Structure formats: structure tokens, C-alpha cells
Automatic annotation (TrEMBL):
Stored Pfam families: Peptidase_M1 (PF01433), Peptidase_M1_N (PF17900)
Name of this chain's protein: Peptidase_M1 domain-containing protein
Location of the Peptidase M1 membrane alanine aminopeptidase domain: 158-331
GO CC terms of this entry: cytoplasm; extracellular space; membrane
A single MF term (Gene Ontology): metalloaminopeptidase activity
Source organism: Taenia asiatica
Coiled-coil regions listed in the entry: none
Residues that coordinate or bind Zn(2+): H229, H233, E252
Residue numbers annotated as active site: E230 (proton acceptor)
Family (UniProt): Belongs to the peptidase M1 family.
Amino acid sequence: MLGLYYSTYTDTNGKKCDILATQFESVFARRAFPCMDEPDRKATFEISIVALDNQVALSNMPEIYRNVIPTPEGCSEPSDGCNYVIVAFDCTPRMSTYLVAMVVGDFEYISSFVNLSGTSGASSSSESEIEGLTRVLPEKAEVRVYAPLGKCNFGQHALKVVEKSLRFYSKLFGSNYPLPKLDLVAIPDFACSAMENWGLITYRETALLIDPDNSSLLSKQSVALTVAHEVSHMWFGNLVTLSWWTDLWLNEGFATWAQYLAVDHCFPEYNIWNKFVSSTYICARRSDELKSSHPIEVEVNSGQEVEEIFDAISYQKGCCVIRMLHNYMSAPVSTAGYLLRSCYLYLLPILLLFPPVLLATPYLLTF
């Protein structure tokens, strides 16, 4: 289930449904299209998808048009009065190849609009300077939670989390969410827990959907943390991107730390920092005691080596180190907002979130 892959699921009525989905992190975009598949090789993408008109087709940006087309060569004639359509999406900002995403299949959704005006502390016409051009950041974003047929009501909790976390992060980083929409898609057959594709976050079904009436507090906490983790990547990871996978711990450690900040702010009744101690901190300690442990920063020289460091050291221990530094130095996290607004084109040292610390690991700030 890497690259562009086909899968199926059975809906609540027993009908077999088809899904086409992507998982490009870390170096699997090359399985779908020719590309320079490194995180610092950013480009814009204009994506079009051919699908049946009764299927949902999604990508990173909003749909701009769909036109009926003749049956493509090599494809069977559609049944039930369906037609083939070509669905075109708006051009993306400059982004890494591993963040490109496409999903096609039978889904239903719930949605809302999140008002971001005033959350960033900037003017309502919040702008970002990019290579001499100006990009106007949206004042609101449409948020949708997609689920397999018959299960969209199970996305209510996730929708609430993403609404609150978008506003929280926009204020925290001093920069509005930079895209006009954010889709969260529950995919029954998905290898990862979740993937932070820009504007189109994909989740394992159990990581996004829960029964709103019969779920435990633990289940609600788990979904909230996972959603908040991926939403934080929309800024730190997608807007601000690691120059190479050696710095993966900073990308994932920061998001793991930020998820606790967001959930603690948005759902104080969860007492989420207690869970931090019992899961993240203890997990980091136990993993670090093993002979197989490694430094949080690991030199990476191949795609296979990248996959090997998506582990508790990069996530949990990385999170603990960032939390420790922040608490020790009492530096305002909002300093990140200055970086996101002003420094898109610079190689900056690690942890400029903490101004007294100027270490040597570069981060490439590009939009």
C-alpha cells in the first residue's frame, strides 16, 4: 500500500466499493510519476483525475472543473448510466513530492467552514512574501471529513477537533492555514495511522472514525491527538519542510509535541498531559533502553533507511526533547509565526523556535 494503489471495502449494505489512494511518504511518489523525490525539491502541481461521475475524486487543492469525456481507451463502458469525467484541481503551492495525494472512491462526507479571520494576529488580508510575489492567505477554510458509505456520522468528533485545531495553530504560529480547504479521508485499507498530505490528510479508518455515542474517553483522546498531529504538519512539515530525512525527528517530534498543545487547549477536560506521561514519555524511555536504540538524528542515505527511522525515537523521544527545551528556555512558541511569515526561502538552524539556541541542523523554509 505504497505509491498509488487500489483497494476495496464492503459498505454497510454489503456492497463492494472501490478505492484508489496514495501513500507517497517518504520516497514513493516516484512509483506514480517521474520526479525528483527529495523533500527539498519543491514544485507546483496541477492534477487532473479521470474517474466515474458517481465517485468522489480528491486531491490537495479544490476542484475547479469536471467535464464528461468519452470512455478512455482500455477502460470498460460504465454501467448504471454513469459517465467518465475528467476532474481538474487548482494549482498547488510549491510543495514536496511526498505530500502530493489523490483519492478516488465511494465516500460520503460531513463538512463545515472554519473562520480564520483574526486568529493569526495579522490583518484580515494576511499575506506572505514568496520570491517577490504575494500570496494572500485565506480567511476561512472548508473542512470535510470523508468516510466509507454509511459511516460519515462517525466523523463528527474528528470534525470538531480539526475545526478547533486549525484556529489554534493559526493563532499559535501567527499565520493562517494557507490552503482554501482541508479534507480528512478515512481509508479502510491504509498502512499508516495517518498521512499529512497537504490539504488532503488520509487516515486509517480506526484513527479517524469513532461512534459518537458509545466511545470511551481513551478513543476520543486518541482520535483528537492523531487529528491534531496531522493538522500541525500543515505548517511544520508542509509549509516549513525538512531539507533531508536526517532531520525527520524534528518534523515528527515537533508534531507530536504540538498535538498535546492543541488538544490541551481545545479539550482541557481531557487532561491530556497525563496521557503524555503515560504513553509518549514512557514509550520514549523504554525504546531508548533497547540495544536497537539510536540517536534522534540519524544520517540517512537511502529510501530504505528513511523507513527505518519512523519509530518511537523520532516521534516520542523527539517530542520529549523539544518539550524539555521549550520548558527550560520558556521561549514563546509564537516565534514560529515570524518564521512562517517572513523566512520562506532561507536555510535556518534547528530549533529557531527557541531563540537562544542556534544549532546546526538546517530546515528549508519554502512555500
